Amino acid sequence: MKRSRPVVTHTVAELVAALGLPHEDAVEFEVRLRLSKKIIEAVAESGLTQQQVATAARTSRTRLTALLNGNTQHISTDLMLRILAALGYSADIRFRRVKPAA
Question: pTM for the whole thing?
Answer without folding.
Answer: 0.81
